[in-house]
Amino acid sequence: MPGCPSYRVRQTVAVTSGPLAGTTVVELAGIGPGPFAAMLLADLGADVIRVDRPGGGLLGSGPHDVLARGRPSVALDLKHPRAVRTVLDLVDAADVLVEGMRPGTTERLGLGPEECHARNPRLVYGRMTGWGRPARWPPAPGTT
Length: 144
Prior knowledge:
Layout: E1 8-10, E2 24-28, H1 33-43, E3 47-52, E4 73-75, H2 81-92, E5 96-99, H3 105-109, H4 113-119, E6 124-127
């Protein structure tokens, strides 16, 4: 996306068959269970596009990020409105969105369930946390 802040694309070899072939997943990359779940969905044949932070993932990037296996990624700075519009455009054609950010983060970015379902009512919006939303540490980075 020329002109979009902090944009880059990483291509990987994806599985093109399996029980989830034909399913499109948007992953808002983070740490913990979200990237692992998206990797498994890709292994089962889903077409997963990972939205990374600029500069790579938190636990590695490129060939060193083992959880990025089997799916392409795009790096977008979600603090910029054009990047948020790009993700919402991906949501338009997606079946599933997977995110594991801290509580309220996707809502603040304009990518919460309400915004995504307004664009795609059939979207399955999956939230994953390390400790659960009502747990003692959900606001802490790396725990949700």
